Amino acid sequence: MPEFENDAVQKEVTELLSELIRIDTSNPPGNETAAARFIQDLLFAEGLKAEIIESAPGRGSLVARIPGRRGQKSLLLMAHLDVVPASQEGWDHPPFAGVVDKGLVYGRGAWDCKGMVAAEVVALLLLLREGFEPGGDVALALWADEEKGGNMGAGWLMKHRPELVQADFVVNEGGGHALPIDGRNHYTIQVAEKGVFWTKLITRGTPGHASMPHRDNALLKMSTYLAKLGTLKTPIHQSDIVEQYLSLRLATIGQTFKGKLQVDDQLLNELSKTHPRVAAEVNTLVRLSIAPTMIQAGTKENIIPESCEAVIDCRLLPGQTAEDLRRTLDEALGGLEEVEIVPIQADEGTVSPLETDLYQNITQTMQELDPGCRCIPYMVSGGTDSRFFRQKGISAYGFFPVSPDIPPSEMLSMVHGRNERISQNNLLLATKFYYRLVKRMLG
Fold first, then answer.
1. Which of 126, 123, 102, 91 is nearest to 21 (CA)?
2. What structural domains and CATH numbers belong to the chain?
3. Which of 126, 224, 360, 405 is the most buried (most CB within 10 A)?
4. Tens of pLDDT along 317-328?
5. 382 contacts: CB under 8 Å, gap ≥ 6
6. How far apart are CA 375 and CA 176, in angstroms?
């Protein structure tokens, strides 16, 4: 397959990512329209019209489409424009400066997810410049609001303007990191994700002066419930997808855990002593998890509060439901008589099939770029915009190829963390991948 000039493409995708990082799209408030307009201008200069759709002022998502010529199945490349907030402290370079230092691009969104945005956009520009005519539609969607659940971005468009992003197959974020084992790289294809259930717990008590404490204190009730959740161990459920991934993941950290196929609490305890990050990763892939994230009570130092509210982030395995969560909370808290449960967001876990043209083409394209490699199915513990498409029966896969010189634990620590960065070589690899994937599927 003809290849482009590597140095020129690497320079272009690096500069695009730096520019995107400099456009602060921290969510909240988002301001994704500014980044969408920047990309819209780039595409228009190459002859491709792109539409920006706002779910609210400043909350813009971009959609573009190259029409297919032969009625083949359509492919949607997508990513998100918003990023999580970042403080200035603890960074080697300012988080919104887009600094390139020693072959690395620093900044919030470098990994999650503006690096993917840049690679997809440049791949599309390269195809436009060479006059590529796809057999089926090639679409691009760059979303607002993914970091806050997607209901102002992908979820909004799928509800109000679904015709703009209609596709047979979707490529999104969520997979692509390499597990090097015995001289062979194993790249993950995200085919599943856990359900996201954000839930508010409310306890109530008798208000009064703090100089006369009593037992009917809403805050004390809540603290008791949260302590119970902190020690909760839900049952382990290990799917075939997770088992295949974990057998390889554990092989990357040494001979002690190589060949371990079944996860139990003993294995997790052993892991936590030597590889706590890996233990946390394994734990969340095999069980329903609950993490308290916010709490609010009281209005003054000397007043016993009338109520206390806490938010818990619950991640459910595919197949688990809201009723399963309620049953888990009932058992963990010893009954729900004194606590009110208010759903904030409820999205069940989703799975895409492995026997599709896109899954095979992702594998074959990656094997062109890294001969001898394997691709394996993978489930993420977080939620992505892929769920909006899977819920409509559209096969969606997460794949942003990650250089094997970056350990998975290091990559995960950078996402939403300090010193988020990506190598220029990795940006080039990803751009090549999307360019070749489109040509392989629709050429």
1. 91
2. 6-190+350-442 (3.40.630.10), 195-234+290-347 (3.30.70.360), 236-287 (no CATH)
3. 126
4. 999 999 999 999
5. 174, 193, 194, 196, 315
6. 9
Structure tokens at 437: 């994937």
Around 68, how many Cα atoms within 13 Å sit in the side-chain half-sphere? Answer: 19
- Going by the DSSP 8-state scheme, the letter that residue 73 receives in this structure is P
Q: What's the pLDDT band for 404 if we cut at 50, 70, 90?
A: confident
Q: Which of 166, 167, 172, 168 is nearest to 191 (CA)?
A: 172
Q: What are phi and psi of 198, to 5 degrees?
A: -90, 125
Report the DSSP beta bridge partners of residue 169. 75, 395
Task: In whole angstroms, give the CA distance from residue 156 to residue 220.
Answer: 39
Instruction: Render pLDDT for 383-398 as a digit per residue (tens, 0 to 9).
Output: 999 999 999 999 999 9
Residue 24 has φ and ψ, to the nearest 5°, of: -70, 110
d(CA 40, CA 85): 24
CB contact at 8 A, 205 and 215: no
The answer to whether 218 and 303 are in contact (CB under 8 A) is no
pLDDT for position 295:
98
Angle between helices 322-333 and 218-230 (to 10 degrees): 110
Closest Cα to residue 167, out of 86, 74, 245, 249?
74
Ordered DSSP codes for 198-241 = EEEEEEE---EETTS--S--HHHHHHHHHHHHHT--PPP---HH
Work out whether the CA dihedral 390, 402, 375, 168 comes out positive or negative.
positive
Give the Å distances, CA to CA, from 355 to 231, 358, 436: 40, 9, 20
For residue 1, what pLDDT is reported? 47
Two tokens, residue 419: 């010193």
Retrieve residue 392's tokens. Answer: 């409509």
Residue with token string 């950078």: 414
- The DSSP call for residue 165 is G
pLDDT digits 0-9 by tens, 174-199: 999 999 998 999 999 999 999 999 99
